[in-house]
Amino acid sequence: MTNGSEARPEDVASPEAIVKAVYEVLSGRADEARDWDRWRPLYAPDARLIPIETDSDGTPTPRVLAPEAYIESRTPFLAAGDFYEWETGREELRSGRMAHVWSIYEAARTPGGEPIRSGANSIQLWNDGSRWWILSVVWDAVNAAALSGPD
Description:
Blueprint: H1 15-26, H2 36-39, E1 43-54, E2 60-62, H3 67-80, E3 84-95, E4 98-108, E5 115-127, E6 132-143, H4 144-148
Parallel strand pairs: 1-6
Antiparallel strand pairs: 1-2, 3-4, 4-5, 5-6
């Protein structure tokens, strides 16, 4: 089973490694193209990325994206300004060949800088006997205004 180019063995050796690789690829300066060829093979064929977003009438709703649609939707945002995202906490549960990672994160315009958003990624993974794959990611980001609370 492949999904684009071959994954780096160190990126898919464990749930911790694959989540770390995702954060590394998404992070960088606006003028640095993201390494989508590293990112694509982290995901199983037919994987889904599901941000909880607010629709035009203010109702929270899941937006279901295939990996290529995610790249298309996020590339303009990542090119518009420096963006760094990192894990601040995690919980991992495993059973057989599957794992669930609850990854708490923050994002900023500089590495380790003042957060512009935080959130949680609910990541479902499976191991095919030789490597880990991401099956789905669901997240709900909170922007910096919500982090600081009411004035």
